[in-house]
Amino acid sequence: MTDLQPVRGTRDFYPEELRLRNWLFGIWRETALRFGFEEYDTCVLESEALYIRKAGDEITEQLYSFADKGGRRLALRPELTPSLARMIYQRARQLRFPLKWFAIPQCFRYERMTRGRKREHFQWNMDIVGQAGQIAEIELLSALVTGLEAMGLTSAHVRIHLSDRRLLDAVLDHLDVTADHLRVMIVIDKRDKVTPETLDALLVEQGLAPAQIARLNAIMRMATLAEIKAELGAVPAAVDLENLLGSLARMGYGDWVHFDITVVRGLSYYTGTVFEVRDRGAKLRAIAGGARYLSQDLDAGVQYPAVGFGFGDVVILELLADLKLLPALERQIDFAVIPFSPAEHAKALEIGQALRRAGLRVDGDFSGSNLKRALQRASEIGAARAVLLMPEELARGELVVRDMAARSERRATIAAFLAEPR
Ligand code: HAM
What is the mean pLDDT of the chain? Predict the structure, then answer.
């Protein structure tokens, strides 16, 4: 027998679940538009080569990839940023920078399934391309906070953990780590997912000596930039981070952002500021993650500085459910049109169409149920009013309008009702 379950790690969205997803997408879209971002999209199918990176990114190992009937190596996109870089490359001469673009793509990763991680997810992407200064970070993080607030969250629920890859680079230099820093960083990114012993073993594999690992772990426990500066001196990344945190505090986001040297993010193309949104209880996986990067590191051939983030739909919906912050979204219909019998069907269709032409949401009940059942259904589908088409009233050119909430009824001529449907 055909398997009736959705493919492992993928979801079906029943209407009530889709209402919730649309609510979330609505907040994402509205926030992006309010910050002057434009929406774009690409196809879910891409060339596999776009995601093959040598640095050891987990994403490369998680590809849903295959050869098509023409022998082309393709992949379902695991993320959108390489496609964005490809689009920019194609029109680099025509596009006017800086670009502020957003998208809500569905992405696929063959992940080990844990809470908050599925094999497909939707991801709100916001990217500012072609702006080197910190103003890009400030705008982007500002949009991120605005989106979180629109979901009903406060800095008591979630925080943006912020660091800079260059700071970790300076730490590794300071510790005389000669191994490839990027590979070491990708190991450090696993900090929350593995035990301290496993992490140490992975660092040994990268060629770090026990003394270096002990020092590194001590630095990773430092909670403030001041401590890091005391250890490293005023390296440029520390000064930049201090400025960024200062600017964000002046914008009123002091409670939202939190310096955290352990933030690395798993993608090899990130170069500077890195951040992730985490729940305060640290119970869930990262809610969103982003960073500064250079488009040429995505093999796009053009060199634009960029900063962006990806914000998935899975963890946030779990968090909002835990916090009881999910809205109760009912169906909304303006009128349920209920013909008493098949003899009134033609009139019901006609009235339904007239109401729809007036811009109203209408559902006709042609189920043949008795009036009581039909009214019950009208209430279930969220109809504000029911229009009852009864033989005697219709013969006089009248209908009955029932206000579902007030449980009151009134009679009106069809002409008067259609002139002012209420
Ligand atoms: P990422 O950190 O790999 O970044 O993913 C961003 C967000 O997507 C995560 O924080 C999480 O919310 C969601 N996500 C990722 N994988 C899964 C999964 N298997 N199940 C559920 N949710 C998931 C990127 O993808 C970058 N391309 C983002 C970006 C845009 N960087 C610059 N611009």
Answer: 94
